[in-house]
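Hi F.,

I've been meaning to write this up properly since the lab meeting, where we talked about keeping a consistent format for the predictions we share between groups. The idea is simple: the sequence comes first, exactly as it goes in, then the structure tokens exactly as they come out, then a line or two of notes. No screenshots and no reformatting. I'm using this chain as the first example so we have something concrete to point to.
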Amino acid sequence: MRLVSVKHVESGATLGRDIYNDSGQILLFRGVALTDRLKARLVGMGIYYIYIEDEMTEDVVIESVIREDTRHKAVQTIKEEFKAISVETKLNKTINLDHLSKSFTSVIDSLLKDIKENQDALAMLQEAYVHDNYIFTHSLNVTVYTLGLAMKLGYSSKKLNEIGVGALLHDVGKVSVPLEVLNKPGRLNDDEYEIIKTHAMAGYDMLRGVPNIPLLAAHCALQHHERIDGSGYPRRLKGEHIHQYAKIIGIADVFDAVTSHRVYRKPMLPHEGLELLYSGAGQIFDKKLVETFRETISIYPIGLTVKLSDGRMAIVVKQNKQMSTRPVVRVFNENGQRIKHYYDIDLMDYLDVTIVETEATLASVK
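Output, unedited:
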């Protein structure tokens, strides 16, 4: 399968993967022939990149990091718990989250199991999902990235559970934000942004006294928008005054935010999101954590068309978990000409060859 831009995919191309909603229902089945009408529908649903069937890559299998049943259960748990908290908050009731610890621990255990079984770097390209509510899916994605990074750092089981709960609940304070601001279909003005910023303290206040919820989870909600140069919020904390968990979740939060579809902009591809993080590495993000994050995620998704430093065009066909910047690629174009017999090269074996450009916007390259 190849990864292409919906905007540039040729009519008649065959969809390579099912498109799901957050409830696990298939909205569009693989194998359907894409028409202009279907392409417009996909863009309307917030799908900008899709996998299509392709003879040259018919042997390439796209494995999901998180199994569908794990994803569905996790999103439903987050949705139910956040909605319950929202109701209790609006009624000015004391929030009772005693049961939440058990339900979220179960989710975290399932996520850890799937991540550990995954043989490649974390690939979470959101081309196959249509989201009913951004916050629920975002909370799940941030948790997956957070757990992956924490595992790479060698965290113990206890710490993985703590930071996992903190990641799942990092945005819980947004249940107190007015829906007209939270769901505004466009960029926020200054006043609206100030309202959004209150979710960090609100989340902390909700979580800090709840039995069976680690106090550190409350600090994750409070600090995940703090930045090491003091430019973050709500307390403008600097450097070591920010808890390590919050620094990790902050990186995962930004990466997922920019690589996910929003009403006012299309998503970045993973390598673009990573470039954004690197632009702030050492200033607003911990540089070592960003570097470890790079080693954790799949920068170039399988199926992506890339240009190599020697001018050859190729398609990513396999990840190297040891170094996600150097995947296995299938060369199909040399000197500007499509070759009859394509071949694979492992960029780990050719250190003088690098990926210099991605061509996700091209459905085909001659």
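Notes:
Confidence is low (pLDDT under 50) at residues 361-366.
Strands lie at 2-5, 19-21, 26-28, 49-52, 129-130, 305-308, 313-318, 328-334, 337-346, 355-358.

If this format works for you, I'll send the rest the same way.

G.
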